Amino acid sequence: MKLSRMIDQLKLKRITGDLEIDISQIETDSRKIEPGSMFICITGFQQDGHQYVGEAIRNGAAAIMAERFIPGVPPEVSLVIVPDTRRALPIIANAFYDNPSCGLRLIGITGTNGKTTTAHMVEHLLNASGRNAGSVGTLSMTYKDIQEEAVNTTPDPLRLQKFLRTIANAGAEYAVVEVSSHGLDMGRVLGCGFQTAAFTNLAHDHLDYHHHMDEYRGSKELLFSRLGNSVDDMQKTAVLNGDDAASAYYAKRTAAQVVTYGLGEDCHLRGIQVERSDQGSRFTIQTYTGDQYPVVLKVPGLHNVYNALAAAAICSCEGLSWDEITRGLQSFTGISGRFEDVSTGQNFNITIDYAHNPEGLKAALLTARECTSGKIICVMGCRGERDRLKRPIMAGIAADLADGVVFTSDNVYSEQIEDIFLDMRQGLSEQHLSKSEFVANRQDAILQAIYSANAGDRILITGRGHEKFLYTSDGLQQMSDADIVQSHMVRV
Fold first, then answer.
1. Lowest mean pLDDT among 95-109, 134-148, 339-353, 462-476
2. Looking at residue 205, what is its pLDDT?
3. pLDDT tens readout for residues 146-199
4. What is the rounded distance in angstroms from the CA atom of residue 198 to the CA atom of residue 309?
5. Which residues are within 8 A (CB) of 29 and not within 5 positions of it... i.e. 6 or more apart?
6. Residues 6+ apart with CB under 8 A from 163
7. For residue 170, what pLDDT is reported?
8. Which residues pair with 198 in a beta bridge?
9. Taking CA 223 as the corner, what is the angle to CA 221 and CA 225, rounded to the nearest 5 degrees?
């Protein structure tokens, strides 16, 4: 694509060099630059892309986009200077990939917990009803046989727009996108024309980045404030959890039509007659018109009832029939790392779950209690270099709701595990400590829990879920919690 076409939509720009050169790819990583590429200098938290212009030019960059003049750029390399490269990046990416969201119906899902499960429920319902849907989120970016590894819950604009173009060209009609607070704050979804945006819940998380709950809440507001602001967009919909107080905040900040879901009487789409068991849940969806539709859900936990209601509300707004929705929910069997049973035939259960914040951990433990006749042994840790405020809160929740807890490491990165344990201990009473153990090595902690379990018990291993790599102070280890269980059970 011609450089002139790529930057045509940028209102503020200064240009040195030829605008009619052909650009073959865009990169923000100088190591990935090939001849004909455009290198965009992004200033990050740890590195400044402007420092790598020389490497990009040596690798064959045909154009550079920067926030300031770069001395030494050869005349054959075009230089485009803009006030904010991070802000310009999604505009450039959209232009380069020919505005892929214009050919797709985009559904965005945000919230502290439940994004991944709800997104996969929606994708499942759409595909089961004969629509062609892909998904972008924590587990992967997927459409039929196309699958790419996820790096962030919401990928950077280049990866996101490239993937959306790929699946649009392959025949996709829908893309269901998990939209994180980081992704919104960093502008990763700028230029994405969402048709429907949904909110699951707001709870304590990511305060290492957002610093305050009001700031965290405000970051998610961006998804809804961009909906329905023109006459052509009045069919756009904000689907909100009516039982969460933050929904009223978002409802006031969107021009889109609002549809609420939940268990409360004021919700437009309600779950009533809820019955839960270790096999899942049975409940009835009552619509705004008073019609009722029974649902059988094979994944356990009250939180999954909420996820199912969110998915049902989204898909009804997208035109699916209630027969398609209820049949699709019944055939949904869960996803990797979300209250996933990894038992290997022993007389107790082992479950892994991604719960890594207070509300997620509480939901997992309450679900475990509903499904367990014996004791619950929780294996959990708190991540290094992340929100320290939630460490004592999570430790207290684990000790309150489990019969025994083995506190351990969870992606400590460069932080010392002793410092993480010290923070966690602040949330533990003497009674809590009497049923708690601290084992720094995660594999040893899981093995200790396995050896202490009896018939009817459940070991709940939280924090990592689907993750395949463990970040320790010694480096990166390729091993999931499921792998650890499998390797240990051979020896038990």
1. 462-476
2. 59
3. 999 887 788 899 999 999 999 999 999 999 999 988 888 888 888 888 999 999
4. 11
5. none
6. 136, 141, 148, 155
7. 97
8. 109, 239
9. 65
Q: Which two tokens stand for residue 75?
A: 């005349």
Going by C-alpha positions, the residue among 202, 22, 54 that lies closest to residue 115 is 202
Over 70: is that where the pLDDT of 53 sits?
A: yes
d(CA 212, CA 181): 13
182: number of Cβ within 10 Å:
15
Q: Residue 56 is encoded by which pair of tokens? A: 């990009």
The predicted-structure confidence for 55-81, as pLDDT tens digits, reads as follows 999 999 999 999 999 999 999 999 999
Q: How far apart are CA 35 and CA 14, in angstroms?
A: 23
Rounded CA-CA distance 253/225 in Å is: 5
Cβ neighbours around 299 below 10 Å, total? 23
* Amino acid (one-letter) located at 273: Q
Tokens of 203: 């709870």
Return d(Cα 196, Cα 227) in angstroms, integer.
8
Out of 232-246, 272-286, 312-326, least confident range: 232-246
Pairwise CA distance, residues 285 & 68, whole Å: 56
Q: How confident is the model at residue 326 (pLDDT cuts 50, 70, 90)?
A: very high
Confidence check: pLDDT of 491 > 50:
no
Query: Which residue type occupies 347?
Result: N
> C-alpha 492: how far from its chain's center?
35
CA nearest 250: which of 233, 226, 231? 226
3-state secondary structure the chain: CEHHHHCCCCCCCEEECCCCCECCEEECCHHHCCCCEEEECCECCCCEHHHHHHHHHHCCCCEEEECCCCCCCCCCCEEEECCCHHHHHHHHHHHHCCCHHHHCEEEEEECCCCHHHHHHHHHHHHHHCCCCEEEECCCEEEECCEEEECCCCCCCHHHHHHHHHHHHHCCCCEEEEECCHHHHHCCCCCCCCEEEEEECCCCCCCHHHHCCHHHHHHHHHHHHHCCCCCHHHCCCEEEEECCCCHHHHHHCCCCCEEEEEECCCCCCEEEEEEEEECCEEEEEEECCCCCEEEEEECCCCHHHHHHHHHHHHHHHHCCCCHHHHHHHHHCCCCCCCCCEECCCCCCCEEEEECCCCHHHHHHHHHHHHHCCCCCEEEEECCCCCCCCCHHHHHHHHHHHHCCEEEECCCCCCCCCHHHHHHHHHCCCCHHHHHCEEECCCHHHHHHHHHHHCCCCCEEEEECCCCCCEEEECCEEEECCHHHHHHHHHCCC
Mean pLDDT of 126-140: 95
